[in-house]
Amino acid sequence: MANNYLQVTRHGKIPEIVFSKPRVNAICAASSRELGQVFADFRDDPDLRVAIFTTADGRFFSAGWDLKAAEHGEDYLSDPGIGGWWGFTSMTDLLKPVIVAVHGHAIGAAFEMLTRADFVVAADHAEFWLPEVRRGIPPEIASYILPRILPRQKAMEILMTGKHFGAQELAALGMINEVVPAGQLMDCARAIADELILGAPLALAAIKEVARESEHMSLEEYYQSMHSGSWPVLDKCLNGEDFKEGISAFAAKREPHWKGN
After folding, report:
1. Catalytic: 132?
2. Which one is catalytic: 16, 74, 127, 132?
3. Has residue 216 been placed in a domain?
4. In angstroms, rounded to a whole number, what is the distance separating the alpha carbons of residues 139 and 132?
5. Is residue 260 part of a domain?
6. 0.90 exceeded by the pTM?
7. CATH no. for residue 57?
């Protein structure tokens, strides 16, 4: 598949994915399908550990959904490909960390995408808002996720008012991990990625598996499920070579050498 809107650069175990679509990096189904293939390649390559996603520099990180595509008949039911909108937001078998680095305005679908990332870093001048209600539609993904991760009143303020929020405001709500000057944005994302690859691959994957599958479980149900052996990645992790290696490395006061099994 030709990558019309993407540049992927590999730095060791860390691919950096840059989405570039003039003029405002708006997303559509076709570009989501391209991104989905890139994230599937990341998912399936055992040598790749953490992905960093950003967009081409400019005032807009992304203006959200491509309204020109909407004018030509695309809607939210259009096929965005194997990973959903933005290529990874509904790729439930992507059990590797995804870091998103936001350098400017993240509007609508771009703001919603951040709720599906594992880590978000933002430039201190970045702004975020959901204008959908003033376009006659609800913000689909955010309407589901924000009331689950934020106090209801704050979620409704974000969803219903179209108000602009600064990076520091969202960081205070727990939606952004780090806020840094614009010139330090990618260095910050890379530092987080370097820290993540120090962990065992299966341990990171098991965390994402448990976070995903236990979302609607009680703690009792989770424990019962865990002890029944119904968590394939977690079970593999707890019975794998890397678990033994982690213990041996700790006892020997050395760095572990992960094999991914």
Report:
1. yes
2. 132
3. yes
4. 6
5. no
6. yes
7. 3.90.226.10
